[in-house]
Write a structure and sequence with these properties.
The complex is a heterodimer of chains A (114) and B (118). With 114 residues, chain A is mainly β. Chain A has no helices and twelve strands. In chain A, the strands form three sheets. In chain A, strands 2, 5, 6, 10, 11 and 12 form a six-stranded mixed beta sheet that branches. Chain A has a four-stranded antiparallel beta sheet with strand order 3-9-8-7, with no helix packed on it. Chain B is globular. The chains are: A mainly beta (114), B mainly beta (118).
C-alpha cells in the first residue's frame, strides 16, 4: 500500500531563515513518482516538482531545492532564505506507475514572519 | 478561461438539500479528479475519471454521485449530506495514464468549492 507521511504539522520561521520540510513515503513498487505541491491561502494547489524513482539527483530551482534519498524513502524540500510569500501549506505526494492515483500526505503549514 | 474552474466557490446546504458542484477544465486533459480536503486530514481522493470512464472510486458514500459528461466537465452531485461532509472539495485534471502511459501525470487543481452542511 502507498503512504506519504509529513510529520511536521506546522513550522514557523522568520524571513531569510532556511527551512526544510520532511516527506517520507512507502510503496511496494520499484517505479513511482514523487511530487511537491504548494497550497497558498487562495486554496488552489500549485505544482512545484515531480521526480521519478530512478532519478536520485538533487534538484535546485532558485530558492527551492529537493533531496531525494531512496535509502531512507525520503523526499525533503528546502526553502533557502524564506520569504513571507512562501507562507502556505506544502503537500508531498506519491503516484505509482501506470495509475492516475495521486496520494497526498497531510501537509505542512509553513508560516514565514517578517 | 484557462486552467481548472470550479463553481460555486462557496456552498451552504441543509442535510435534505440536493446540490451539485461543477468543474470545468480548458487544458485538453483526459483525466479528472475529485478530492476532499478536511481539516487536519490528508487530501482524500474520491473519484478519478479517465477518458470519461470512472477508474477509481475510493469507498465514497453514495450520497456523493459523480458525473463526467465529457472530458472537459466533471460534476459532483450531493444529496442528504451530513455535517461531517463539510470540507473543501477540489477538482483536478491531468493528461491521464491512458494518454501518457506513465504515472507521472501532473495534476492541475481548481481553487475548490467550500461546502458547509448545516
Amino acid at each position: 500500500a502507498q503512504k506519504v507521511t509529513q510529520a511536521q504539522t506546522e513550522i514557523s520561521v522568520v524571513e531569510k531563515e532556511d527551512v526544510t520540510l520532511d516527506c517520507v513515503y512507502e510503496t511496494r513498487d520499484t517505479t513511482y513518482y514523487l511530487f511537491w505541491y504548494k497550497q497558498p491561502p487562495s486554496g488552489e494547489l500549485v505544482f512545484l516538482i515531480r521526480r521519478n524513482s530512478f532519478d536520485e539527483q538533487n534538484e535546485i530551482s532558485g530558492r527551492y531545492s529537493w533531496n531525494f534519498q531512496k535509502s531512507t524513502s525520503s523526499f525533503n524540500f528546502t526553502i533557502t532564505a524564506s520569504q513571507v510569500v512562501d507562507s502556505a501549506v506544502y503537500f508531498c505526494a506519491l503516484s505509482e506507475a501506470n495509475t492516475d492515483k495521486l496520494i497526498f500526505g497531510t501537509g505542512t503549514r509553513l508560516q514565514v514572519f517578517p | 478561461e484557462t486552467g481548472v474552474t470550479q463553481t460555486p466557490r462557496h456552498l451552504v446546504m441543509g442535510m435534505t438539500n440536493k446540490k451539485s458542484l461543477k468543474c470545468e477544465q480548458h487544458l485538453g486533459h483526459n483525466a479528472m479528479y475529485w478530492y476532499k480536503q478536511s481539516a487536519k486530514k490528508p487530501l482524500e481522493l474520491m473519484f478519478v475519471y479517465s477518458l470519461e470512464e470512472r477508474v477509481e472510486n475510493n469507498s465514497v458514500p453514495s450520497r456523493f454521485s459523480p458525473e463526467c459528461p465529457n472530458s472537459s466537465h466533471l460534476f459532483l452531485h450531493l444529496h442528504t449530506l451530513q455535517p461531517e461532509d463539510s470540507a473543501l472539495y477540489l477538482c483536478a485534471s491531468s493528461q491521464g495514464v491512458a494518454v501518457t502511459l506513465s504515472g507521472a501525470n501532473v495534476l492541475t487543481f481548481g481553487a475548490g468549492s467550500r461546502l458547509t452542511v448545516l
